[in-house]
């Protein structure tokens, strides 16, 4: 499959933990940015049939829907977008109203990814989110009413004073609307306000062991509620797995448009510059052609992150015979890995430590 | 006046920290051998490491010209290492001299090392010139210390120069006394060639360089020489002196100190203490005092990256060139792969070598816990000499084990005798006697197992005596001892590199300490890792490293796979510092951690 990612680097307010390319103080750049973005899409030299589009950010819902519509139109003119393509937009609960949602729906967006993060107002405030619990449910109700059938809710783990009970409660309440949950662990990145809050002792985050415990209990709870884990952090009702994400793990082609967006075509990866100045000048942050070893590493790394797994025969093409690695056999023996018809998958119980497993396997 | 009458060969001996290197610097400066701007502090300590540790390890001789009463004198300073580990090297340097300056700190007075070195100098028949240093300190008590030198060392000291090497006070007086007091060399310039090799170093272009003192005859480029111990012959390509950098000269004659280069490729062919003679006209009498140096402390050294075995070998070979006392032979460990079992003169020596391997050769190494050579009598009558714990036979096959013991002399003010005795008892010492040297100093004599003093004995001694005690020892043979081997099992697999040999009474506590320590060091892994200590088949302690459950559940945003792959590659790289034993990953510092066990006892 081929996918398109479009980056909208604007937010009403940047979250305290955010280290991505997004800005809450550069709205003067909006016009110039979207002109550049249009131009970037129009001048693309690839001719792909597109199976999924993901409009992410930043906060795409923070800009006018007409801009989004224009971008989608440009994409449709330039590429052949499949009729049943999955088209996702990321949104914050506070920037969603009925009018906006109706416009999204009518322009063909069929999947909504809502940055819920938490249903505890205190935690939301700490994170620097602008919404509260009531706004979450209001937005979800309207979205459903407007016709969205595929809704993801992002949840953050590892927040101050967060309990399994809180999270279970949240899932129970959200599952009326959600078909998909993304549960990420809060990462304290350098240069973010959260980092200085932690260092200054103003907030106290739970230690990793505790978060992992919560995570494991959540996995069980989500499953019981009909959400199967299909990737480390992603859970979906059957048939609602995010095609766009799976395309990343399955190493399909994707084109990224916009500030700091990543692309992968053939065995080449590149990314746009992540500051406006360089982006407007058409500069790339990097560009690399993967060698055989890197390809093999990726096949293992990406395949084991999710339910897709990887084929042993696929690795052989790149000169890697995994059966020679003693850890591979040990992992199979101990049930860390499963082999089915030549496809190697990770036992979902070990999603949480997949990095360790991958590290041993990619020693080639 | 003949040529040799204008030569003085001397060395400086001192207790550590009493200012030997500083005085050497001042002498070089005062004689104008080097301009002040070229002086680096403590010039003779040529290795970075030496300057950092403030101790002298390597010897660098220097020729200085000094004008005295209208005559030009050639003063050859041969520096000596100041640590108990290097006694043999010191003795060879002393043998190259006629005189020795004995520096004594004017406030601290005579210390153990002062005494040991002074006796060594006396044994070598050297004229000793006592010098009181650090006279600028308010705590200096020169008259008392002079008396102490006369009483304790037994040499006249009333006319000893009182100097401050730091400030440069009275340095001239020292220079004058060198000329007046020290005898000149009295070799036979026309006799058969006899040179003492008192040190060597490796030069990338000239090969192994021998630092020599010519006793009789002369040597010049083109001569054919013979090493009397190894029996090998060489053609001399170059001779020279140090000023303090090497400078080519035409000839070295009786009385001179300098170097010979003769493209010696195999470093083992230069043995410190060996005698060089002319191959075509050899002397039949080698210089006395040659000793094959016997290492007393052994440990395994392995490359962290197994592929770097050859590089490690080259590094050790290069180091051995400057260091006749370093010994090594290949060793294979089940846990650590190919490496070397190395012998050292002492723990400081071990530390210096391993640090130099890491710094100068840029190799990451794993050092296993140091041990001693044991004599093991097996029930079948066979006697084994073991320096590697992993080779110890099964307990049922052992009739008895003997371990090396040392005669230790500890010098300290009387109020610390209790603390010293307590420490020695704790280290399985046997009390031998107590001597009052004067009212402020006693000497406590003990017989101690060598294995007990190689770890941290000196540090403990210092901390228990507020730094007042000093300590000297000599190997005093072997004694029977109740020793057992404690093995460490990781995940049920024995890790030979972690085995230690300890006294039976200490086996349980050491085993427990070791497992606790390893639990802290070994990172959590995919599966839980039991850590056990065992004597034979009997488990005496157990800890468990619980399984790792965390990983990064971070968002992999917008298809940024590159970052993730690089992160993973970096993590993988980090793992290369770890060693894999069975399925358990162990950081390389774990192997040295056994050493530090005793700290935790306290």
Describe what this molecule looks like in 3D.
The complex is a heterodimer of chains A (about 375) and B (about 600). With about 375 residues, chain A is α/β, with parallel strands linked by helices. Chain A has two domains: about 1-245, Aldolase class I (TIM Barrel); about 290-365, Arc Repressor Mutant, subunit A (Orthogonal Bundle). In chain A, about 40% of the residues lie in helices and about 25% in strands. Chain A is built from 14 helices and 15 strands. In chain A, the strands form three sheets. In chain A, strands 7-8-6-5-4-3-2-1-9 form a nine-stranded mixed β-sheet, with helices on both faces. In chain A, helix 3 runs parallel beside helix 5. The mean pLDDT of chain A is about 90. Chain B is α+β, with helices and mostly antiparallel strands and about 600 residues long. Chain B folds into five domains: about 5-180, P-loop containing nucleotide triphosphate hydrolases (Rossmann fold, 3-Layer(aba) Sandwich); about 195-280, Elongation Factor Tu (Ef-tu), domain 3 (Beta Barrel), CATH 2.40.30.10; about 295-365, Alpha-Beta Plaits, CATH 3.30.70.870; about 375-480, Alpha-Beta Plaits, CATH 3.30.70.240; about 485-600, 2-Layer Sandwich (Alpha-Beta Plaits), CATH 3.30.70. In chain B, about 25% of the residues lie in helices and about 35% in strands. Chain B has 15 helices and 32 strands. Chain B has an eight-stranded antiparallel β-sheet with strand order 10-9-15-6-7-14-11-12. In chain B, strands 20, 21, 22, 23, 24 and 25 form a six-stranded antiparallel β-sheet that branches. The longest helix of chain B is centred in the last third of the chain and has 18 residues, at about 505-520. Chain B is globular and about 85 Å long. Residues about 55 of chain B have low confidence and may be disordered. The chains are: A alpha/beta (about 375), B alpha+beta (about 600). The interface of A and B includes residues 208, 288 and 298 of A.
């Amino acid at each position: 499959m081929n996918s398109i990612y479009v980056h909208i680097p604007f937010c009403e307010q940047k979250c305290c933990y955010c280290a991505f390319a997004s800005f809450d103080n550069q709205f003067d750049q909006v016009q110039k940015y979207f002109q550049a973005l249009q131009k970037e899409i129009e001048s693309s030299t690839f001719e792909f049939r597109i199976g999924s589009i993901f409009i992410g950010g930043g906060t795409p819902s923070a800009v006018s829907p007409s801009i989004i519509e224009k971008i989608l139109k440009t994409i449709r003119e330039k590429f052949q977008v499949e009729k049943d393509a999955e088209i996702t937009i990321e949104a914050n609960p506070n920037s969603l109203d009925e009018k906006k949602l109706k416009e999204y729906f009518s322009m063909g967006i069929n999947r909504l990814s809502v940055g819920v993060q938490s249903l505890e107002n205190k935690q939301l405030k700490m994170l620097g989110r602008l919404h509260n619990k009531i706004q979450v449910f209001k937005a979800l109700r309207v979205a459903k009413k407007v016709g969205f059938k595929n809704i993801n809710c992002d949840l953050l783990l590892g927040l101050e004073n967060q309990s399994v009970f809180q999270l279970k409660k949240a899932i129970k309440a959200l599952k009326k609307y959600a078909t998909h949950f993304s549960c990420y662990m809060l990462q304290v990145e350098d240069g973010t306000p959260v980092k200085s809050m932690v260092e200054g002792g103003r907030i106290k985050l739970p230690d990793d062991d505790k978060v992992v415990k919560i995570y494991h209990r959540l996995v069980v709870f989500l499953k019981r509620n009909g959400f199967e884990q299909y990737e480390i952090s992603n859970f979906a009702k059957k048939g609602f797995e995010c095609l766009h994400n799976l395309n990343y793990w399955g190493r399909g082609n994707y084109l990224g448009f916009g500030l700091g967006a990543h692309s992968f075509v053939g065995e080449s990866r590149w990314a746009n510059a992540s500051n406006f100045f360089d982006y407007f000048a058409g500069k790339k942050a990097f560009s690399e052609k993967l060698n055989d070893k890197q390809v093999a590493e990726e096949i293992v790394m990406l395949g084991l992150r999710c339910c897709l797994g990887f084929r042993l025969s696929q690795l052989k093409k790149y000169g890697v015979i995994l059966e020679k690695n003693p850890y591979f056999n040990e992992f199979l023996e101990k049930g860390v890995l499963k082999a089915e018809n030549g496809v190697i998958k990770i036992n979902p119980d070990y999603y949480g430590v997949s990095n360790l497993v991958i590290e041993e396997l990619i020693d080639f | 006046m003949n040529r040799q009458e204008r030569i003085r060969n001397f060395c400086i001996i001192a207790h550590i920290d009493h200012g030997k290197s500083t005085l050497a610097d001042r002498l070089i400066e005062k004689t104008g051998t080097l301009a002040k701007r070229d002086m680096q502090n403590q010039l003779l300590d040529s290795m970075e490491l030496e300057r950092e540790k403030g101790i002298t390890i390597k010897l660098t001789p220097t020729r200085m010209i000094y004008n005295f009463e209208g005559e030009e004198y050639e003063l050859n300073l041969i520096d000596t290492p100041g640590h108990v580990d290097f006694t043999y090297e010191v003795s060879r340097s002393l043998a190259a001299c006629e005189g020795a300056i004995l520096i004594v700190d004017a406030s601290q007075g005579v210390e153990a090392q002062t005494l040991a070195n002074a006796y060594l100098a006396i044994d070598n028949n050297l004229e000793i010139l006592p010098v009181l240093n650090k006279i600028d300190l308010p705590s200096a008590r020169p008259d008392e210390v002079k008396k102490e030198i006369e009483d304790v060392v037994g040499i006249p000291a009333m006319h000893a120069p009182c100097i401050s090497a730091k400030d440069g006070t009275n340095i001239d007086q020292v220079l004058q006394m060198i000329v007046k007091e020290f005898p000149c060399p009295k070799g036979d310039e026309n006799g058969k060639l006899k040179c003492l090799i008192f040190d060597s170093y490796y030069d990338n272009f000239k090969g192994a360089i021998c630092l020599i003192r010519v006793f009789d005859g002369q040597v010049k480029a083109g001569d054919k020489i013979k090493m009397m111990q190894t029996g090998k012959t060489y053609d001399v390509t170059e001779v020279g002196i140090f000023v303090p950098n090497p400078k080519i000269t035409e000839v070295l004659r009786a009385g001179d100190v300098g170097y010979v280069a003769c493209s010696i490729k195999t470093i083992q062919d230069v043995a410190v203490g060996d005698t060089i003679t002319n191959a075509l006209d050899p002397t039949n009498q080698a210089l006395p005092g040659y000793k094959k140096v016997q290492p007393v402390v052994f440990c395994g050294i392995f490359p962290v990256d197994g592929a770097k075995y050859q590089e490690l070998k080259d590094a050790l070979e290069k180091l051995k060139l400057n260091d006749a006392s370093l010994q090594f032979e290949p060793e294979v460990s089940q846990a650590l792969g190919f490496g070397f079992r190395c012998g050292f003169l002492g723990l400081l020596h071990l530390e210096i070598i391993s640090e130099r391997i890491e710094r100068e050769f840029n190799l990451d190494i794993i050092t296993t816990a140091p041990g001693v050579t044991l004599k093991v009598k097996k029930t079948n009558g066979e006697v084994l000499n073991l320096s590697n714990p992993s080779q110890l036979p099964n307990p049922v096959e052992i009739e008895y084990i003997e371990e090396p013991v040392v005669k230790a002399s500890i010098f300290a003010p009387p109020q610390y005798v209790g603390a010293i005795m307590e420490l020695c008892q704790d280290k399985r010492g046997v009390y031998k006697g107590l001597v009052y040297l004067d009212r402020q100093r006693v000497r406590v004599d003990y017989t101690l197992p060598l294995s007990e003093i190689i770890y941290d004995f000196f540090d403990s001694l210092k901390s228990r005596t507020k730094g007042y005690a000093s300590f000297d020892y000599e190997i005093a043979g072997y004694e029977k001892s109740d020793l057992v081997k404690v093995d460490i099992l990781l995940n049920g697999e024995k890790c030979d590199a972690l085995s230690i040999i300890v006294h039976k009474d200490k086996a349980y506590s050491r085993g427990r300490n070791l497992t606790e320590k390893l639990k802290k060091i070994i990172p959590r892994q995919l599966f839980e890792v039991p850590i056990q200590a065992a004597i034979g088949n009997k488990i005496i302690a157990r800890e468990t490293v619980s399984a790792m459950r965390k990983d990064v559940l971070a968002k992999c945003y917008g298809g940024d796979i590159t970052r993730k792959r690089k992160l993973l590659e970096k993590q993988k790289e980090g793992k290369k510092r770890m060693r894999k034993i069975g399925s358990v990953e162990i950081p390389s510092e774990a192997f040295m951690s056994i050493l530090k066990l005793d700290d935790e006892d306290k």
